[in-house]
Every structure is written in structure tokens, then in C-alpha cells.
Design a protein that fits this description.
By secondary structure, the protein is an alpha/beta fold. It is built from ten helices and nine strands. The strands form two sheets. Strands 5-4-3-2-1-9 form a six-stranded parallel beta sheet. Helix 6 links the parallel strand 6 and strand 7. The longest helix has 16 residues.
Length: 250
């Protein structure tokens, strides 16, 4: 079993996303610890990029704030190394192919293994091109438009599958209308690997609904909003929010 699958060992998984370096790396570290202590089963760490095509305005702005604060990929590797002294839950990077290429793919993957990153999510890398990024679990995304590719992606999936709830970019939505049940059932027919649903989830009710359909819920924009709102004081608010969301999944 991969380390990522461990996140799904304790019932439905709550997966929290944060943009590294927003507003600074000390706050990111405190927020990760607060999320882990309050029941997050897996953390997605966003490495900021100047053109994050899959993101809505909330996470786009967080990327800009982080880049303006002077964050670099090397500093983020140092952050993870430091976090790994106390945080034992699985952690993955979410970023874009350009970030990995410009750092050097081999060096990037080797550093991921060294510091204890369990997987990689690259929304702009199609499933067919994932070969060159293997070295940690490559988490594939399945979107409502994946239709005839769902079975194929599921069969070769690693770690867990990220099911995108809706078309468009990340961000909170008042309701999610996609027929996710049929996507999940097709995934289940083709793999035993857990799948979690993300994009648009912000309330405990939505999280519960998505986790009832799948193996877990992924939340990003709602957490990043707390960082925008509270800045350096955000970690305690993030801890409280994660606890409320995790309680809803229990």
C-alpha cells in the first residue's frame, strides 16, 4: 500500500490544501500543523506558480502573494523537511509542470523523496504524459470531461484519484451538479485505489455529501480564504475549520 493510501485508513479522508508561502512560510508551517492536529488526513502543499491555470481567483491571488513574499521551490523543500519532524500524515505537492521542469525534473523528484513528500499533483500534465514524473506517486485527476478515459486512468492510478467535481477552475460553489456517483462507480470497477472529490467544497454539508459518494473530500479555496482574511493569525482558524469538516465526515 502506498503512503498516500494510508490517508484513507481511518474512514473518510479530509484533505486540506494550502499555498506555500502565503502570507509567509512560517504561517504555512503553523497552518499545516494545525490542520494535522485537528484531523486532516492528507495535506496538499501548493508550490506557487505565476500562471496557475486550474485555479480560481482565491488561489490565484494566494500564488501572487506567496511569490511576492519571496518563496522559492528550495525554501519549500526546506519547509517540508522541517515539518516532517512532527507531521506524520501524508503530504503531496500540487503545482504545474513548468515549476518542475525549471527546477529540473530528476532533482525535483529526488528531493521529494528525500524530504518525505508522498505524491505529486500536476493539473496541467495529461495522464498520457505522466511517465517522466514518476518517482513519487503521481496523483491523476479525473474530470467530468474524462468520460471514455476514466477507466484507463483509474486502472493505472497511484496513491489516490482526485475527482474534479465540476468543470472550470477551483473555488467554492453553492451546489455541485455533476453526476459524480456514476464517475465514482466507473472508478471503483477499475481500481481499488481510493478516490477523493475536490473543487468547490466549502461547507461541512458539502464535504459529507462528497465523502458519502467517494472516499474523501478535498478543500482548498475555503482554507486559502482564511489565510487571506487572517494572515499570520490564520492557523488557529484553519485548525477550527478542519476540525469541523473532519467531524462532518465521521
Amino acid at each position: 500500500m502506498s503512503d498516500l493510501a494510508r490517508a484513507f485508513d481511518h474512514g473518510k479522508a479530509f484533505i486540506a490544501f494550502l499555498t506555500c508561502g502565503d502570507p509567509d512560510l512560517e504561517t504555512t508551517a503553523a497552518a499545516v500543523r494545525a490542520a494535522a492536529q485537528n484531523g486532516a488526513d492528507l495535506i496538499e502543499l501548493g508550490i506557487p506558480f505565476s500562471d496557475p491555470t486550474a485555479e480560481g481567483p482565491v488561489i490565484q491571488t494566494a500564488n501572487l502573494r506567496a511569490l511576492q513574499s519571496g518563496v522559492t521551490t528550495d525554501k519549500i523543500f526546506d519547509l517540508v523537511r522541517e515539518l516532517r519532524r512532527g507531521v506524520t500524515i501524508p503530504m503531496v505537492f500540487m503545482t504545474y509542470a513548468n515549476v518542475v521542469f525549471s527546477y529540473g525534473t530528476e532533482r525535483f523528484l529526488s528531493n521529494c523523496r528525500d524530504v518525505g513528500i508522498d505524491g505529486l499533483i500536476l493539473p496541467d500534465v495529461p495522464y498520457e504524459e505522466k511517465e517522466e514524473f514518476l518517482g513519487v506517486d503521481f496523483v491523476s485527476l479525473i474530470a467530468p470531461t474524462s468520460e471514455n478515459r476514466i477507466a484507463m486512468i483509474a486502472r493505472e492510478a497511484e496513491g489516490f484519484l482526485y475527482i474534479v467535481s465540476s468543470l472550470g477552475v477551483t473555488g467554492e460553489r453553492s451546489e455541485i451538479k455533476t453526476d459524480l456517483a456514476s464517475i465514482v462507480s466507473l472508478v471503483r470497477k477499475n481500481t481499488d485505489i481510493p478516490c477523493a472529490i475536490g473543487f468547490g467544497i466549502s461547507t461541512p454539508e458539502q464535504a459529507k455529501k462528497m465523502a458519502d459518494l467517494s472516499d474523501g473530500a478535498i478543500v482548498g479555496s475555503a482554507i486559502v480564504k482564511l489565510l487571506a482574511q487572517y494572515g499570520k493569525d490564520a492557523p488557529e482558524h484553519i485548525g477550527a475549520y478542519v476540525k469541523e469538516m473532519k467531524d462532518a465526515l465521521r
